[in-house]
Write a structure and sequence with these properties.
Layout lengths: L3 H28 L7 H6 L3 H15 L2
Helix pairs in contact: 1-3
């Protein structure tokens, strides 16, 4: 049987990587001019990157 700590860590890792990846993707598209975005997304997209990293760190601590 799979321990619940592994499942918890996998969920947090997936969520964190998704947030960070989307943040990098949206920020790159915005700064290279490929994707016109409203002004609110222009400053929210870079904030998704550290939020994803923090989610991974919290998940690792929760899994202990």
């Amino acid at each position: 049987m799979i321990p619940t700590e592994s499942i918890t860590m996998a969920i947090y890792l997936l969520c964190g990587l998704t947030l960070a990846g989307l943040g990098i993707l949206l920020t790159g598209f915005y700064y290279f001019g490929e994707l016109p975005m409203p002004n609110v997304f222009a400053w929210v997209a870079p904030l998704m990157i550290p939020l994803g990293v923090v989610t991974i760190i919290v998940g690792e601590r929760e899994a202990r």
